[in-house]
Amino acid sequence: MHGVHGRALVVDLASGTAQPFPIPDDVFRRVLGGTGLATWLLLRFAPPRVDPQSPANPFVLATGPFIGTGLTTSSKLAIATTSPQTGFIGDSLTSSYFALVLRRTGFDALVLLGQAPDWSVLLVEDDRVSLRPAHDLLGLDPEETAGRLRAEFGRDLRVAAIGRAGERLVRFAAVVNDGRLAGRTGPGAVLGTKRLKAIAIRGTGRFPPVADPAAVARAARRLAERSLGPETAKYRELGTVANLVFFSRLGVLPTRNFAAGSFPAAETLAGERLATAHRADRQACAACTVGCEHHFRTTDDGPATTVRLEYESLFALGSLCGIDDPNVVLRAAALCDRYGMDAISAGGTVAWAMECVERGIALPGDPAEWPRFGDGRSLLRTLEAIGERRSPLGDLLAEGSRRAADIVGQGSHAWAMHVKGLELPGYHPRKLRAMALGFAVTPRGACHNRTSAYEIDFSERAGDEVDRIALATARSEDRSAVLDALPLCKFLRHCFDDFFAEAAELLRLVTGLAESAEELRTAGERIVTLKKLFNLRQGWTRADDTLPERLLGPDGIDPAELEALVAAYYRIRGWTPDGLVPITRLHELGIDPLLVPTTSGC
Q1: Which of 73, 257, 273, 513 has the fewest CB atoms lying closer than 10 Å?
Q2: Considering 401, 418, 435, which residue would you say is the last residue of a domain?
Q3: Which residues of 265-290 are buried (b: 16+ CB within 10 A; e: fewer)?
Q4: Mean pLDDT over residues 362-376, rounded?
Q5: Can you tell me the distance from the alpha carbon of 196 to that of 177, in angstroms, rounded to the nearest whole number?
Q6: Would you say residue 143 lies in a domain?
Q7: Where residue 464 sits, what CATH number does that domain have?
Q8: What is the pTM of this model?
C-alpha cells in the first residue's frame, strides 16, 4: 500500500525504550489514518476501564496518508487518549509542521505508554528516542519551551509541549505546537500525568511514496485553486470570528452561560470591528493555502498583546461570560494559550462559576475573588487561578464544570453546560435540533468539529422529520470522520461537488486503494463506531447521550423529542435501543478482531 509507512513507534516512558509496531495494510483500508488510526491504536493499547490519570492510559499521535503529498490543508496531527474530562475517548486535531516531521521519521504514529520516572522531554530522532531532564523547563509556556529546546538541540526540531495548566493537571489542558492548540478533551493533562513537558521530534527521512505522483501533483494544484474560491472567502477575510454577530441575530449565540441566545453587545465583539480596530496579521497553517488564522492585538492601556482568535474562543470568553470588551477577550485568549488551556472549556467553567455567584451559591476562597458576569478583571484573574491551581477557587475550576458541580452541589448541575463532561461549544441548541442531537450522541462529548449538524439546521434539507434529521446528523459525522482521517481541513468541505466520490479518487491516487464513494463513507461510519466501542469499554451508558438540564423543557428542547431523535439515530447506526453495538453490526462494518482486539460492551 502506498502513502503509508505501515508502522508505529511505541515508546515505554518508564524505561525510555521504543520499538516498532507493525500496522497491517488492512487497518489503513478500514480506518484510513489520522483520527481513525489514532482510535484503532488507542483500542489496541488501552486496557478496559483505564483511568485517564493513570500511567496505563496511552497517548497516541497519528498521521494520515495525505500528509506530505502537497494536498492543501492536509498537515494535521491527530491525538487520541482517554479524556480526563469525560473518561471516554479524547481525540483532538491540530494543524502543524509536527505532523510533517513525524511522517519523515519513517512512522505513521507515535504511541506513548507508561510514565516517565521524572519530568522529562521525549526526544525522537527518526527511530531513536531518549528522555532528557525537563526540570529547567517547568513553568515555561509552550512557546518558551519550544524555543529552549530548539536552541539546545537544533532549529529543525518540532516541539509539542504543555504549559503550566498541563503540569498542574488542569483537566482541560492542551498540547501546543507551532502556536496551535490540541485542546478539547484535555490531552495536556495526560502528558502532565506522564511527566512529559514536551515531545521534540526530528525526522530526516522521506515521505512514503504515493501511487501516482504526477496525478497527485495535478490534483493538489486543482484543490489549491478551489481552496481560494468563494467557499472559503469568509475564512480568508475575517476568519471564524465573523460568525458571532450572525449567530446572535439568529438567537443561537450562547450568552451568560446559555441563559440566552443573543448578546445585546454583540456588535462590540463583531468580526468586522475586530478587523478594523485590532487586526495584526493573517497567517496559514502548515501546508495550507487558505490562511484562515487571524491575529488581533490589544489597544487598551495594558501591555500590548497579540493573539490568534477564533469564533469559539471569542464566544467562550466573550458573550458566554457577559464580556463586551474586545481587549479583555483578547487578553483572556492569550492567557489560555500561555497556560495551555482549551478556551471553550475554560470559558464554560468560568461561566458556570459566574452563575453560581449570581445565584448566591458560595464558592471556595475570598468572595472578592469570585468571577462575575461582565467583569473582565475577574475573568482574567480566574483564568490565571485555574492555570496555576494557586487558590481553592482555581483548584475547583481546574476540574471542569461537571466535577466542580459535583463538589459544590446545591443544584449547580442545572447550569453546568456540558455533555459527558465536555463543555458545549458556541451553538445554542434550542433552535438547532440536529445540532442538539449531534451534541448528545457524539462520542467525545459536546462537539462542533466531529459533526457539522448545525449546517443541517441552517438549511432546509432536514425539515421536521425525526428520521431525516437523525440520518443527516449521522452522515455529517461520517464525513467529519473521513476528513479527520485523510486528513483534510473541514473548511474545504464545500469545495467539493461530491465529497465522498472526489475524496475516494484522491485516496486512490495517493494509496492505490480503489474505494467507491459509499465505501469511503462506510469508513467514516466505521471510525465513529470504533470510538463508540471505546466508550462502551469505558462504561458508557444510554444516560450519557443527553443534554444539560437547562436545555431541556418548556424553554428548550422537548425531552421526548430529544429521546425520539436519539432513538432514530441509534436505528440508523444499527445499534440497539440502549445504544449498544450488536456483533452483527460489527461484521457488517468490517470491524473484526484485527481492528478491535479486545472489544466488550457489544
Answers
A1: 273
A2: 418
A3: bbebbbbeebbeebebebeebbbbbb
A4: 96
A5: 14
A6: yes
A7: 1.10.599.10
A8: 0.96
